[in-house]
Amino acid sequence: HDLTNVPDFIILKQHYDESVAQNVQEGDRIEAILDGQWWTGTVNKKEPVSEEFPSSLWFCLRILWDSGEEDVMSPWDCQPRSGSKKSGDEATETDQRNFAHVDTEQDWPEFSLHGANEAKEACCTRMFDAVTKLSVRDSVAPFAYPVSLETFPHYAANIDYPIDLDTIANRIRSGFYRRLTALHQDIRQIAVAAEQFNEPASGIVRNSRVVVEALVRFSRDTLQDDIVNLYDSLFDLPPEQIVEYCKKQVYNL
Fold first, then answer.
1. What value, to the nearest 5°, has the Cα angle with vertex 250 and ends 229 and 22?
2. How big, in percent rounded to 5, are the helix, strand and coil portions of the chain?
3. At what angle do helices 165-174 and 116-134 cross, to 10 degrees?
4. 165: CB partners within 8 A, 6+ apart
5. Contacts of 110 (CB under 8 A, 6+ apart)
6. CB within 8 A of 107, min separation 6: which ones?
7. Where are the residues of the annotated region Disordered (predicted)?
8. Which of 6, 109, 198, 216 could be bridged to 244 by S-S, CB 3.0 to 4.6 A?
9. Number of H helices and number of E strands within the chain?
10. What pLDDT does 7 receive?
11. pLDDT recorded at residue 8
12. Per the confidence metrics, is the pTM higher than 0.70?
C-alpha cells in the first residue's frame, strides 16, 4: 500500500491471497490508502496490462477515482469499499495496521497450542533468552557480535549475509521474524558465514555448527529448558549427528 522506497511487487503473500480471493470486478467500488490518505473510486476496466501475460493480475485494474483522476492498480493495491471512508480522509495508524501480517498458528507450529499471537510471543521470549544465554560462552564468542571490520577488513567483501547472535536477538525483540522458519534461516547463516570465511575443517566452523544445532533443536523441543546444557551435550557428538546447519530451508507458503 504505497510505501516509500518499497517496490510495489514486494507484497505479503497473505495479503496477495486475500486480495485475489476478493475478485474485484468492473463496476465495483473500491478504496485504497495512498500517501497516507484514503482514496475511493470505481473499477472502470479489468484487463491484463500485457497480452504477453494474459493471466497476470499486475496492474489489471483501471480505476476512476471519485476526484475524477484515473489510475491503474493491482488487486492488492486496493480493497472493496467497506464503510464510510471518503477520498481525503486521513488513514489512521489502525487503518495501516489492518494491512500488516497476521500471525497464524502455522507460523510458530511448536507453540501453536497457545494460539497464533501467543505462540509467537512465547517462542520469541524463549528464543531471545536462549540466544542471550548462549552468547556468553567462550566458544560462542566469535558469533556473539558483528565481526569487526577493523580486525577483518575483507570480511564484508567475502560474506554475502553477515549475521550474529546479537543481531538475531535484536530482531527477535523487535518482532522482525514473522515465522519460526525465518528465525531458523538466520541461525543457519551463522554456520554458512563461518564456513565461507574459515577453513572448513577448522574449530570455529565446527563450533558454529554446534551453535546452530543447539538453537534449532531448542526452538523445536519445548521440553528443553536449558540451552547451555543442550549446547554442551552436543559439543562432543560425531559430525554426522550435527545436521541442522546444512538443512535446506523449506517455506510453507
1. 125
2. 45, 10, 45
3. 150
4. 131, 134, 135, 140, 143, 144, 145, 190, 211
5. 123, 180, 219, 220, 221, 222
6. 116, 119, 120, 178, 179, 180
7. 74-99
8. 216
9. 8, 5
10. 59
11. 65
12. yes
Query: How many Cα atoms sit within 13 Å of 214 on the Cβ side?
Result: 28
Distance, in Å, from the CA atom of 118 to the CA atom of 28, rounded to the nearest integer, reads 37
Cα–Cα distance for residue pair 182/26, rounded to 1 Å = 39
Q: How far apart are CA 87 and CA 3, in angstroms?
A: 18
Strand partners, 64: 42, 70
Residues 6+ apart with CB under 8 A from 172: 124, 127, 128, 131, 183
Strands 61-65 and 70-73: antiparallel
Radius of gyration of the chain (CA): 24
Report the pLDDT value the prediction gives residue 74, as an integer from 0 to 100.
93
Distance CA 228, CA 241 (A): 18
Looking at residue 113, what is its pLDDT? 61
pLDDT of residue 88: 85
Q: Which residue numbers in the chain have pLDDT < 50?
A: 1, 253
| pLDDT at 36 (0 to 100) | 87
The Cα–Cα gap between 185 and 171 comes to 13
Would you tell me how many other CB atoms lie within 10 Å of the CB of residue 47? 11
Please give the domain boundaries of the chain with CATH numbers for all domains. Answer: 13-100 (2.30.30.1040), 111-241 (1.20.920.10)
Query: What is residue 38's DSSP assignment?
Result: E
Distance of CA 227 to the CA centre of its chain: 24
Strand (E) or helix (H) holding 212 = helix 203-220
Q: How many residues does the chain have?
A: 253
